[in-house]
TrEMBL record:
It holds the Pfam family ANAPC5. The gene is Anapc5. GO terms for biological process: anaphase-promoting complex-dependent catabolic process; cell division; positive regulation of mitotic metaphase/anaphase transition; protein K11-linked ubiquitination. Belongs to the APC5 family. This is Anaphase-promoting complex subunit 5. Residues 254-353 form the Anaphase-promoting complex subunit domain. It is found in: Cytoplasm, Cytoskeleton, Spindle; Nucleus. Its main location: cytoplasm. InterPro entries: Apc5, Apc5_dom, Apc5_N, TPR-like_helical_dom_sf, TPR_rpt. It comes from the Eukaryota. Keywords: Cell cycle, Cell division, Cytoplasm, Cytoskeleton, Mitosis, Nucleus, Phosphoprotein, Repeat, TPR repeat, Ubl conjugation pathway. SUPFAM superfamilies: TPR-like.
Length: 756
């Protein structure tokens, strides 16, 4: 305990010119920077009516961030004042120069004169105002200094002023060699109102308690709303360690350290900081003062609950369950219904890892509404909607449930949950294959966030909901062939969510998937294969599936089949229905390429049954197209055309450009195959109609730069033009085909051995 007490009473006056009167008796201490602010306030009072209304308004807006923020260099302070009132900046500089180059008694006289600001019937400063409280704190802190501490403060003031003079001298020498217009620039408002820069905090001394509280609240707000504007994880941790060096029992600093460790997925440091936060909360008695004797128990049960949430986040489900049981036991002993409802929500999350059950979640929603916890109730409703979406419930029922949730959001002004709800709707429409509706919801969220700003000039659009919607938007653009627009969206995502941020994995996965699809379309299988490792690191299921696609494209059928069978068993076990259907379609394609057409039919029928059972309309349409292709191979093109008309409409309305092209190519194949039994005149009409469909398919394939499919379409068109006797058109298609055929590797020209 000796080392703890020594650190508690550590006196920081020996470093950075900071004189600390008493760590626990006074909330502030005197520094040269704060003396410069006192001079500014004194000169502001002297100026009085000489200042114009606009200048006074600018100075008033400047004062609050100066009083709350950390210490800064005199040059930067003077520049900030010059932006508001150049005349006042000169007066402050002269006053500081007289004090720094004068004697110690000049500083003593200055503090004696500060008390006059409160005297008289109409004082210059009210005692209870922000400026008045700051002046009183500084006067009190100065009066409590010993003579040696006063001398050290005076020495620090001289060094503070001399450092600025040396910098000005160096700047003047540079200006003699440089164009003055290049150096003349105004300080932007965001430099003071915005978040603190790393070099500013690093060069400042120890923060006072009020400055520390402002710093912590600002960084916590930035971590929640706009992580890119917060300090880098290493710099923030360095400053937090510096704060804790002066006061190890500063509970809020431990909690911010916990949030900072979560950013970099550091399980050890985050656990350590979280436990220290609740330990300090109990030691300082902050909880017991506000909650009576119940405060200690409250800290303990919420500590266990937060520990359970932390373990669940890192995938330590057994440890999370033990911590949750402890939280439930303490909450039951204390009859804390609010804590019990939070425990019930986390219990559902843990149980969901084992089996799907809506009972706990429905009970949690009802109890949360009963105890007046709209935030928790809304999260429960949205979790219930998500679970039922995966279970295949109708979209109209899910949207009705989300509408009820939105009523709670608007009633209680829960803006964060409004964003989550819209992102949820976007994802649900994507799951059901309604890209148009998903695009509409995504645009709604982007429009809402562009109008809503929070403190310190931060746009509240760096949340997970915003990242999810932007990722869907990038993928939707890429599917329609707008790769430049998708790249711009991903570039914006990279700026908003740097690689070290907690939501960066979202755009990383979508970026890799889009690059993979482009490489596959272009026939560059070696590049696609190199991207598989990155996709697997972010999502193992997606990575294995795409590895099988590459093997299939490289004609390694047996290896692809083994991989797909293993993936199918795994996805069936974890009930990932969407991936199960995609795997079944890939297995069916392997059977076609191996000339096992009859074996592919049961696989396709199984995929169709799953897609219809779980209301996955787009996957159902794609499966029907594959069934039509099977019927074409088996020699019944008329039946294939009949079911094509049933499935092609959703594909053309909501499908990707590549799927649209494949669908139109398949229609043309079926039309040509059916025309064999027609009369000559009707056959010519059917072939001309097939050529028109091939032109449309060619447009789609060209949009996504799918050269292999373009080659097949051109070959097919050349054959049809030859049959119709159109020599000029045939030669043109043949020439384009030859150019592509020389560019692409020669695998033959597969006309009827694969749907895609």
């Amino acid at each position: 305990m000796a080392s703890v007490h020594e650190s508690l009473y550590f006196n920081p006056m020996l470093s950075n010119g900071v004189v600390h009167a008493n760590v626990f008796g006074v909330r502030d201490w005197v520094t040269p920077h704060k003396m410069a602010l006192l001079v500014l306030l004194s000169e502001l009072g002297r100026a009085g009516a000489q200042l114009g209304l606009l200048e006074r308004r600018r100075l008033n807006r400047l004062l609050l961030p100066l009083l709350q923020g950390p210490d800064m260099a005199l040059s930067r302070l003077r520049k900030a004042i010059e932006e508001c009132c150049p005349h006042l900046a000169g007066s402050v500089h002269i006053r500081l120069k007289l004090m720094a180059e004068g004697e110690l008694k000049d500083m003593e006289q200055f503090f004696d004169d500060l008390s006059d600001s409160f005297s008289g019937t109409e004082p210059e400063v009210h005692k209870t105002s922000v400026v008045g409280l700051f002046l009183r704190h500084m006067i009190l802190a100065y009066n409590k200094l010993s003579f040696s501490q006063v001398y050290k403060l005076y020495t620090a003031l001289q060094q503070y002023f001399q450092k600025d003079e040396k910098k000005n001298g160096a700047d003047e020498n540079e200006m003699e060699l440089t164009n003055p217009e290049e150096l003349d620039g105004k300080m932007e408002k965001e430099e003071l109102d915005g978040p603190l820069r790393e070099e500013e905090i690093a060069c400042s001394g120890p923060l006072s308690q009020k400055q520390a509280e402002y710093f912590l609240s600002q960084q916590a707000s930035l971590l929640k709303n706009d992580e890119t504007k917060a300090l880098a994880p290493a710099s923030l941790q360095k400053e937090l360690n510096n704060l804790l060096k002066f006061n190890p029992d500063f509970a809020e600093a431990h909690y911010l350290s916990y949030l900072n460790s979560l950013r970099v997925q550091d399980v050890f440091s985050s656990t350590h900081s979280l436990l220290h936060y609740f330990d300090r909360l109990i030691l300082t008695g902050a909880e017991s003062k506000s909650n009576g004797d119940e405060g200690y128990g409250r800290s303990l049960r919420y500590a266990a609950l937060n520990l359970a949430a932390l373990h669940c986040r890192f995938g330590h489900y057994q440890q999370a369950e033990l911590a949750l049981q402890e939280a439930i036991r303490i909450a039951q002993e204390s009859n804390d219904h609010v804590c019990l409802q939070h425990c019930l929500s986390w219990l559902y999350i843990l149980e969901q890892k084992i089996f799907d059950s809506c009972v706990l979640l429905e009970h949690s929603v009802n109890k949360s509404l009963h105890f007046g916890l709209p935030y928790l109730a809304s999260l429960g409703i949205q979790s219930l909607v998500q679970q039922r979406a995966f279970a295949g419930k109708a979209a109209n029922k899910l949207m009705d449930a989300l509408k009820d949730s939105d009523l709670l959001h608007w009633k209680h002004s829960l803006s964060e949950l409004i964003d989550i709800s819209i992102a949820q709707k976007t994802a649900i429409w994507r799951l059901y294959g309604r890209s148009t509706m998903a695009l509409q919801q995504a645009q709604t969220l982007l429009s809402m966030n562009s109008l809503e700003a929070v403190n310190v000039g931060v746009q509240q659009n760096n949340t997970e909901s915003f990242a999810v919607v932007l990722c869907h938007l990038a993928e939707l653009h890429a599917e329609q062939g707008y790769f430049a627009a998708a790249s711009e969206i991903l570039k914006h995502l990279k700026e908003r969510f740097p690689p070290n941020s907690q939501h960066a994995q979202l755009w990383m996965l979508f970026d890799q998937k889009i690059q993979f699809e482009r490489a596959m379309n272009d026939g560059r299988y070696h590049i696609a294969d190199s991207l598989v490792a990155g996709i697997t690191a972010l999502n193992s299921i997606e990575g294995v599936y795409r590895k099988a696609i590459v093997l299939k494209a490289q004609n390694q059928m047996s290896e692809a089949h083994k991989l797909l069978q293993k993936l199918l068993i795994h996805c069936q076990k974890i009930k990932n229905t969407e991936m199960v259907i995609s795997v079944l379609l890939s297995i069916a394609e392997l059977y076609w390429r191996s000339s096992c057409h009859t074996i592919a039919l049961p696989v396709l029928l199984q995929a169709l049954a799953l897609a219809r059972e779980y209301s996955l309309q787009y996957l159902a349409s794609e499966t029907v197209l594959n069934l039509a292709f099977s019927q074409l191979i088996l020699g019944i093109p008329e039946q294939a055309l009949n079911i094509l008309h049933m499935a092609i409409e959703p594909v053309l309305a909501h499908g990707a450009v590549l799927d649209k092209g494949c669908a139109m190519f398949l229609v043309a194949k079926c039309q040509v195959a059916s025309a064999a039994s027609y009369t000559p005149q009707k056959k010519i009409e059917a072939l001309e109609s097939a050529i028109l469909n091939l032109n449309e398919a060619k447009t789609y394939f060209a949009k996504v730069d799918c050269k292999e499919q373009l080659r097949d379409v051109l070959y097919f068109q050349a054959r049809l033009f030859h049959t119709l006797g159109k020599t000029q058109e045939r030669n043109k298609c043949a020439m384009l085909f030859r150019q592509l055929h020389q560019e692409l590797p020669a695998h033959g020209v597969p006309l009827i051995n694969a749907f895609k």
